[in-house]
Amino acid sequence: MDLSSLPREKWVGDDYLVQLGGFWFLPQFVKKNKRVINNYNPLPNDVILVTFPKSGTTWLKSLLYSILNRSSRHKLAVEHPHDLVPFLEAQVFAEADEPPALAAPLDGPRLFATHLPYQLLTKTLDSSQCKVIYLTRNPKDLLVSFWHFVNKWNMEKPNQSWPLDEATDKFCDGVIPCGPYYDHVLGYRELSLKRPKNVMFVNFEGMLEDPHGYVKKLGDFLECPFEEEEEVDDIVKNCSFEMLSSYDVNKSKESTTWFPTPYNSFFRKGKVGDYKNYLSNESVQRIDTLTKERFHSLGFMYGI
Ligand code: A3P
What we know:
By secondary structure, this protein is an alpha/beta fold. The chain has one domain: P-loop containing nucleotide triphosphate hydrolases (Rossmann fold, 3-Layer(aba) Sandwich). It contains 14 helices and seven strands. It has helices spanning 27-39, 57-68, 81-84, 88-92, 118-126, 139-153, 164-173, 181-194, 204-209, 211-221, 229-238, 241-244, 248-251, 281-294, and strands at residues 8-10, 16-20, 23-25, 47-51, 111-114, 131-136, 199-203. It has a four-stranded parallel beta sheet with strand order 5-4-6-7, with helices on both faces. Strands 1-2-3 form a three-stranded antiparallel beta sheet. Strand 2 (16-20) and strand 3 form a beta hairpin. Helix 10 (211-221) crosses helix 11. It is globular and about 50 Å long.
C-alpha cells in the first residue's frame, strides 16, 4: 500500500501519523491494520477486547484470560498479558494475511484484542456473532497515561520528548494513534446499541471501584459464570496492579517483539484521577468541554 497517498500529520518530534478511514495511526501499523480489516473473519464464539490505547488494556487482558482459562490462569505469573492475549493488528496479522495463530483452539473461544475503531471494522463486526468487550477510560487520565507512555518509548531519542501542552493539543485535535478518541468510543457505542447482547462496555474507573462485580458480570457475559465467589476473588487479586506489576516478566526492561517499548511500560500507577497531578486547570476545562460536546450531548454521560 502506498502510504504517500494518505493524509499525514506531524505528531511527536519528527514522527508523523497517517490517516486511514478518518483515524490516525503510526505509519508502521497501516499495512497491518489493512490486513485485519481485509482478512479477519471472526468465529461466532470469538471474544474481542477493544480498547483505545492506555485505557487499561493490559489489565483487562489479564482478567479476560483468567476468566476464560481458569485452570491455566497461573500463566500470568510468567507470561506478559500481551503475549497471552495478542493484538490482531500488532501480533496476529502483523506478518501474514492468513496467520497460523488463527487456528481455533480445541476448547473454549479464541481471545484477541484490537485498538481498531468500529468505523474500520464495521463489515467484520456487523456480520459476526462474536462477543466484543469495549473498555473506556476517562479522557484526562488516558491522556496523561498516553503522554507518559510516549515519553518512555522515546527515551532513547532525547530530542523527542513530548511536552504535555503539545500532547493535550494533539489529543483535543484527535491527532493521536487510533484517534480521535471520542470517535473511537462513540463508534463502539453505536455497535453496542445495535447489538446489545454481543457488546459489553466496561470502564476503567468502574473496574477499580468494584473489580469483583465486574469479573462476575464478565463471566456471565462470556457464558462462563462463576460458581464460587472465592474464584472471583482469586482472579481479582492475581490481576491487581500490585500483583501483576510484581512479576519479573512484567518488570522486564526488554522490548516487546511487536512494539518498541519495554514490557514494564504497561504498568505505571493504575489509579483514577492522576491527571490532577499533571494537567493545568485550563487543559482540564478544555477536555471537559469537549467531553460534554461529544459524549454528554448524545446522552452518554461518561468521562467527567
Ligand atoms: P497509568 O499510566 O495511568 O498508570 P494499557 O494497558 O491500555 O496500555 O493502559 C495502561 C494503563 O493501565 C496504565 O495506566 C497502567 O498503569 C494501567 N494498568 C496496568 N495494569 C493495571 C492493573 N492491573 N490495574 C489497574 N491499572 C493497570
